[in-house]
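Lab meeting, action items carried over

1. Structure of the two-component assembly. Owner: GW. Status: complete.
Input record:
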Amino acid sequence: MTTETHIDIAELRKKQPRFNAIDSGHRACLGCGQALGARLVGEAVGPDIIVANATGCLEIFTTPWPESAWRVPWMHSLFENAGAIASGIEAAMRAQGKSTKVVAMGGDGSTFDIGFQALSGMLEREHNVLYVCYDNEAYMNTGVQRSSSTPHAAMTNTSPPGKARMGKRHLKKDIVQIIAAHHTPYAATASVAYPSDLRKKIRRAMEIEGPTFIQIHAPCPLGWGHEGHESIEVERLAVQTGLFPLVELERGELTGVMPIRQQVPVTEYLKRQQRFRHLFAKGDSRAAEELEHIQALADHNIEVYGLRGEGVDRFDTEGSDTVHRGGQRWA
Amino acid sequence: MMQPLEGSQALARAVALCRPQVVAAYPITPQTHIVENISKLVADGVLNCEFVSVESEFSAASVVLGAAAAGSRAYTATASQGILLMNEVLYNIAGSRIPLVLTCANRAVSSPLSIWNDQQDSMAVRDAGWIQLYCADNQEAVDTTIQAFRIAEATELPVMVCVDGFTLTHTLEGIDIPEVAEVDAFLPPFEFGRKLDPRNPKSLGTLLSPDFYPEARHSHHMALEKAQAVIEQVDADFAAAIGRRSGGLLTVEGPEDARIGILTLGSVIGTFREAAEEGTDLPAAKLIKLRSFRPFPVEALKAAVAGLTDLIVVERALSPGAGGIVGAEVRAAMSELADAPRVHNVALGLGGRDIPMSSYAELLALAERDAPLRFAVFDADLNKLPEEDR
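Predicted assembly:
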């Protein structure tokens, strides 16, 4: 015999008011991974923060003057200086004896490429800043051009496939390891397809006094070439294939991973996205070779980080973010 | 108290008196001694501030921008390549109307590489929307630095204090450093109304559509125009509080009835003053010391040239293919006068070339020309160049 419990969700929500740093009504595209990522970060960071935002989609779609989607003090300066702006704000907070946490945000272009030096300096000087990188693997704001985060073989408008090329020739930069090599207290990767895990990592980073870094893999329907409503499905596959491992590094040491319960072949992920469609061209031997190469990259990630799960784990790629009655969901 | 100090050392002391809360530092010759001296004051406990040793000038400018936006008084210093690397941030600071102070230890810009003094660096960023004040000597540099914070905070505009590299920064001279209490009374703590504050969240640096952009630019321009009165007022207030003037927007020295004028900015004014004193056989001339290049004081300049037949504009930079930079702006201002003097325009002492006292007489001789000299690199020895480059 079972006891039925009736839960009034609306009533529950009223009892659990959540502050969100970023409000609805902004102008992101349908299915935007970055907007979702920013909302999840915004839920976890609390109101006592100041945001330093690099130039990019997030900055553009949240602040078309005189409107702003931000409920926290927010500053945008340039494309390549979010790390340094955050450093300056943090120095000011220190000088004023305030505990307000500074959160820097940027895309992969501003983080991996043009703003990398300022970020490296911020980490080296141990500013008390959480740096969040929304990684959608190309310069999406300018119309999909290759960055050093663009995965191998992906098509962008500056890495088009053709007779002489199969998309991007080079590998995706391993930014989280580079960040960790700065003796960073906490550096982690997260995915918008795993919100509980993402929020948990943000909260962990917020507790640490010192520089922390979270790289959030975030699909861009426009740049990746899938429907907006498919974002979460596609993003889950990025994690389940091993192409985007979810890991935590503390002072360079691996301290946590999300185990993969069932490894999915990379083709399942790749075939959902137009940016990889040249890899499925019939009769192109180069395509088959590239697919093998990408599978090898995923296998390598799984090997290096020990992502192969040992049976059922409620925090693995299948268990995490399953709704558990009793409050486990809001980790 | 008057004491013998190196220019950079005196500047560091002046900055410390202003109680900056955040200082961003990156080395570049000839500015380095300034931040070195500040770091020593911090190490000795004389100055209590966040001293951020950044990894580039680009980040130095960004750090002070972030700090001032968050409501802290902020300072940095640079020169030459450093100011050019900052260029994008300089525009951003000014456009965001963030008050802070930067010392530019004026130096030539590469290439060819030169570590020596001219003013190509600050002239290259003249359109960034900053107030630019040029200092004739180290006492002016000290006093202008203190005034700069007052001006910046009153106008919500950044101020660049331009100090000739080596000529001033590395020269030991007798300098009066004001007392702490005097500066505290003159310069109250920084209160920034638009600061980043979680209790009153604002968004700073948003995207402007064409519907609003020209208005933002207009108001920035007007803020600089209105800053002219503030620069004059702060100089007068400083004189009342500490007993010295630095020269407001510009000053005119020399005989009332002189028909020739020499206009210049920076430390070369000292050379000309002395040459004028010694050259009793030379024609009488007025010396116009332009302290404020941005805002450009058109009305004050028009008044300053009254009665002159010839005005010789001597500058320490050029715009290749156009000629003088200051000269062009002076000519434009003169076009508003019915009885404007003839304007001769020269660049002098580029890349640290010594400007001897004798150059003063040579410059005055320009007034005897039939036609005004449009522009020349006055001390270039053409014999050093191949025929086709002369």
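2. GW to write a short summary for the group page. Key points so far: Chain B has two domains: 2-242, 253-389. DSSP finds twelve helices and 16 strands in chain B.
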